[in-house]
Design a protein that fits this description.
- With about 230 residues, the protein is mainly beta.
- The chain is built from 3 helices and 10 strands, in the order αβαβββββββββα.
- Helices cover about 10% and strands about 65% of the residues.
- It has an 8-stranded antiparallel barrel.
- The protein starts with a helix and ends with a helix.
């Protein structure tokens, strides 16, 4: 009886709820080019005051530890960023705002090594970025104003390798991770009112959302099986 139960005791399965948040960088080359095109197209001087800066991401997940060095899981990823082109003076105001966000379901596989309360792991994560881009243009001259709005959506396939280090504290595990997201297959940004209309740059080149960039995060995980055993 002891021989049968010993492996289960030594390498018991974990079911973890993980909450991760951190800072993300974004490439967004096409959307930055779009801002430059807006600046050049206007008959008055404007400035790019924000240009898709680094911003926070949020990533809850559910992971299952199999054996002593492997875990798999499901992830739901949220990230966003944006830009602004603007000018304001006594005669009026001009704004061109862009806000883009992505909701991304994914799966992960992590190979890890534990030493006392520490655990170091190497994670491969693959998922789909469902992006939505909202463009808002506002121009106001004295008492007259005009607003133009448009929305676009796209679907990208991404891959993120990362390394993470965690420490077991009471019933929770505190972690830090560093990774790099690659948008490995990008879809055109299509208008939400007509899928045949896509966001285009010069020479009729389609524009793409590109979430490629570094990811630095902090995480907190809790093993649900610890509660079940009490």
């Amino acid at each position: 009886m002891f021989l049968v139960s010993a492996p289960c005791h030594l390498y018991s399965q974990e079911v973890n709820i993980v909450i991760e948040s951190g800072l993300a960088a974004f490439k967004m080359s096409d959307l930055k080019t779009m801002n430059e095109m807006v600046v050049k197209s206007l008959p008055f001087d404007v400035r790019i005051t924000e240009d898709y800066p680094d911003y926070y991401y949020y990533k809850p997940s559910l992971t299952f530890t199999l054996g002593k060095s492997l875990s798999v899981g499901a992830v739901l990823y949220y990230q966003s960023t944006g830009s602004r082109v603007s000018r304001s003076d006594y005669s009026g105001e001009y704004l061109f705002d862009s806000r883009i966000r992505a909701l991304s379901p994914a799966v992960l596989v992590c190979v890890f090594h534990s030493a006392n309360k520490f655990r170091i792991g190497f994670t491969n994560e693959t998922g789909v970025n469902f992006s939505k881009l909202q463009l808002n243009e506002h121009i106001e001259i004295y008492t007259q104003s005009e607003d133009n709005k448009a929305s676009f959506v796209s679907t990208n396939l991404y891959y993120t390798p990362s390394v993470n280090l965690s420490y077991l504290l009471l019933n929770c595990r505190l972690g830090i991770s560093a990774g790099y997201m690659f948008d490995i297959k990008k879809g055109s940004l299509s208008n939400t009112e007509s899928k045949r209309i896509t966001l285009e740059l010069a020479d009729d080149k389609d524009a793409y959302a590109d979430w490629t960039g570094f990811r630095l995060g902090l995480s907190l995980s809790y093993n649900l099986l610890l509660s079940a055993r009490k």
